[in-house]
Specification:
The chain folds into two domains: 238 residues, Glutamine Phosphoribosylpyrophosphate, subunit 1, domain 1, CATH 3.60.20.10; 183 residues, Rossmann fold (3-Layer(aba) Sandwich), CATH 3.40.50. 30% of the residues lie in helices and 24% in strands. The N terminus and C terminus are likely disordered. The strands form six sheets. It has a seven-stranded antiparallel β-sheet. The chain has a six-stranded antiparallel β-sheet with strand order 6-7-8-9-13-14, covered by helices on one side. A four-stranded parallel β-sheet has the order 17-20-21-23, sandwiched between helices. Helix 1 crosses helix 19, helix 9 crosses helix 10 and helix 10 crosses helix 11. By secondary structure, it is α+β, with helices and mostly antiparallel strands.
Length: 493
């Protein structure tokens, strides 16, 4: 057992400096070329998952499914592929995997025939009671085709004794716990679900008379659709014949969307709470500058994640902003394999110093977050090796001290640098001249939140505070990787 865990950890230690969002979902109803529009929507959501993609369509009689490894543009760009997906209804999924085997059977959407007809399901998030549910289902005789907790949702729907499909779905949802945004397709009906806290994002759009569900508004923009509203926390939207019905079966809870959608995950041009993510990120940089005034020559972002915050930082201090690091945008998944020769190249695969810009300069290096610290150390060293006089590091979010259980790829607490070292120790570890993080108060102020009763309206910010809105039922302990990976049932798979 211990040997298996050790081998698993070795496989997981790949070059992956950022937190990762597992997937993106998209669905569209009652429109011609539904699969083509779904492919375009998934292309806009490519940043949410790059390991696999899939589309399921419905043509009034039959369901059609195509799943592929790799990027949407490499797989759904040919007419002959899209011709295999006829119909006016379709849902799609982009997958990002962090654990378990990379097999085609784990690529979503999943489809199953039930006693009330077929149903296709695509899921973004993670169930915190997935191990418990799967064990019970297997004990009851269920046979699982994949290693994903999304299939657990399908199994629960299929086993429900309720008569109507919507009641079967509600019955299944009451048994699951965790963070999720789900799109489903059944006959001529598109269904969207958001978890009771609204941790994972899901938006509603419209193209002419057709409704659309997507993880982000950028997926609406690419097909010329109009953003209508967010799906509310705990809401089920059911779209049939261009008519939308809303169900709210859960006890009402205060919405707590994931704070990292604002910091990093959402594409900069996506709308979050009536404002582009890019604007929030600029504001994080401005607030960071207020908290960490410093006399330097140059503001340098870690591209692309630190760009917006660095612009805000630069504008507030009225200091020069420049690209001291140049990013290679053509690093494919081939280079993110656990081979020692590849890993040893580190950040050089993606970044290189702009020597003439940084030479003999006092630099503030801006990034949106710091996780393990290994990448930051390599970037700081790269800047010094290229002639920088001083390198000061500023992080446009608070210290990440706690792992995630809701569908985000975070290391264990033992691997999170800020969970185990003080600010001074981290600064020494990354070899920076100085180091400052944005305060939690600064983060909320930058988002326009006002304090009430000495507290801010709260998002899901457990990364910084340890305040988990949903306690995992599955006993994972501090090493959250162990059980989820060995049993291979995380939605990452």
């Amino acid at each position: 057992m211990k040997k298996s865990i050790k081998n698993l950890r070795k496989k997981l230690k790949i070059f992956n400096p950022k937190l990762k969002e597992e997937c993106g979902v998209f669905g569209i109803s009652n429109i011609s070329d539904a699969s083509t529009l779904t492919a375009l929507g998934l292309h806009a959501l490519q940043h949410r998952g790059q390991e696999g993609c899939g589309i399921v369509s419905y043509d009034e009689k039959n369901y059609h499914s195509e799943k592929r490894f790799g990027l949407v543009g490499d797989n759904f760009n040919k007419e002959k592929v899209l011709k295999k997906l006829p119909g006016n209804y379709a849902i799609g999924h982009n997958r990002y995997s962090t654990t378990g085997g990379t097999t085609l059977r784990n690529v979503q959407p999943f489809f199953a025939d039930t006693n009330t007809g077929g149903i296709a399901v695509a899921h973004n998030g993670n169930l915190t009671n997935a191990i418990t549910l799967r064990k019970k289902l297997v004990d009851d005789g269920a046979i699982f085709y994949s290693t994903s907790d999304t299939e657990t949702i399908v199994q629960l729907i299929a086993k429900s004794k309720r008569e109507k499909k919507i009641d079967k779905i509600i019955d299944a949802l009451f048994q699951i716990q965790g963070a999720y945004a789900i799109v489903m397709l059944t006959k001529n009906t598109l269904i969207g679900v958001r978890d009771p806290y609204g941790i994972r994002p899901l938006v509603l759009g419209k193209l002419k008379n057709s409704y659309i569900l997507a993880s982000e508004t950028c997926a609406l923009d690419i097909i010329g659709a109009k953003f209508v509203r967010e799906v509310e926390n705990g809401e089920i939207v059911c779209i049939e014949n261009n008519e939308l019905k809303s169900f709210k079966p859960f006890p009402k809870k205060k919405q707590r969307p994931c704070v990292f959608e604002y910091i990093y995950f959402a594409r900069p041009d996506s709308i979050l709470n009536n404002k582009c993510a890019y604007e929030y990120r600029k504001n994080f940089g401005k607030e960071l500058a207020k908290e960490a005034d410093i006399d330097v020559d140059l503001i340098v972002p870690v591209p692309d994640s630190g760009n917006a915050a660095a612009i805000g930082f630069s504008q507030h201090l009225e200091k020069k902003f420049d690209l001291g690091l140049i990013r290679n945008h053509y690093v494919g998944r081939t280079f993110i394999e656990p081979a020692q020769k590849i890993r040893s190249l580190g950040v050089k695969l993606k970044l290189n110093a702009n020597k003439s810009t940084i030479k003999n300069k006092k630099i503030v290096l801006i990034d949106d977050s710091l996780v393990r610290g290994t990448t930051c150390y390599k970037i700081v060293k790269m800047l010094y090796d290229s002639g920088a006089k001083e390198v000061h590091v500023r992080i446009a979010s608070p210290e990440i001290r706690f792992p995630d259980f809701y569908g985000i790829d975070t290391p264990t607490k033992k691997e999170l640098l800020a969970a185990n070292k003080s600010n001074d120790e981290i600064c020494k570890y990354i070899n920076a001249k100085s180091l400052k993080f944005l305060s939690l108060d600064g983060l909320y102020r930058a988002m326009g939140f006002e304090k009430r009763n000495n507290t801010y309206p709260q998002l899901t910010d457990h990364y910084f505070t340890g305040d988990y809105p949903i306690k995992p039922m599955d006993k994972l302990g501090d090493d959250k990787v162990t059980q989820l990976s060995l049993l291979s049932i995380s939605s990452n798979n």
